[in-house]
């Protein structure tokens, strides 16, 4: 045991400078048995601290990985859009549902998906005429404003006034509640120039591949 005590660090064959601790402005030696215990505790503490650090880092990495996966899943654009059979489609992304001499018109799921959240729909007047290939209104979204092109010619007999207060129906239900207008066809033969569901699906794939 190192029994000497002074303001200067004593040198002893059984004591090392690293084993002296400053206490009340004096260097006080520690009993070798207690010193060994403290050394052991220090080693265990270091290892335990390192273990906690590793566990914390692993936890953060796992959380970051899960967060990244979630963001990737929730923010990526859809790889496909819904296309309904028995409808006809224009290359400007409008759809037509023909029932005898009347037709219901709206924009496709592919169109609304690219537009984003729709905030306003410009509707034509009942009684006005629309012509194939000519615009009759517009759809405004948070991204842009796009003209709506009529896929057929005829007289407007009804418009979806629900869109005035709920334009988002175009996003939520483009083929049902989000329809835009109904017309009395003036030339039923124009429908034959439009695409069916399979042709339109292929058209969308090719168009998206170009971008």
From TrEMBL:
Gene3D superfamilies: 2.40.50.100. Residues 102-184 form the Lipoyl-binding domain. The keyword Translocase does not apply. It is found in: Mitochondrion. Binds 1 lipoyl cofactor covalently. One of its GO terms (biological process) is glycine decarboxylation via glycine cleavage system. InterPro entries: 2-oxoA_DH_lipoyl-BS, Biotin_lipoyl, GCV_H, GCV_H/Fam206, GCV_H_sub, Single_hybrid_motif. GO terms for cellular component: glycine cleavage complex; mitochondrion. Keywords: Lipoyl, Mitochondrion, Transit peptide. The modification N6-lipoyllysine is found at residue 143. Coiled coil: none annotated. Its cofactor is (R)-lipoate. Belongs to the GcvH family. The glycine cleavage system is composed of four proteins: P, T, L and H. PANTHER family: GLYCINE CLEAVAGE SYSTEM H PROTEIN (PTHR11715), GLYCINE CLEAVAGE SYSTEM H PROTEIN-RELATED (PTHR11715:SF3). The H protein shuttles the methylamine group of glycine from the P protein to the T protein. This is Glycine cleavage system H protein.
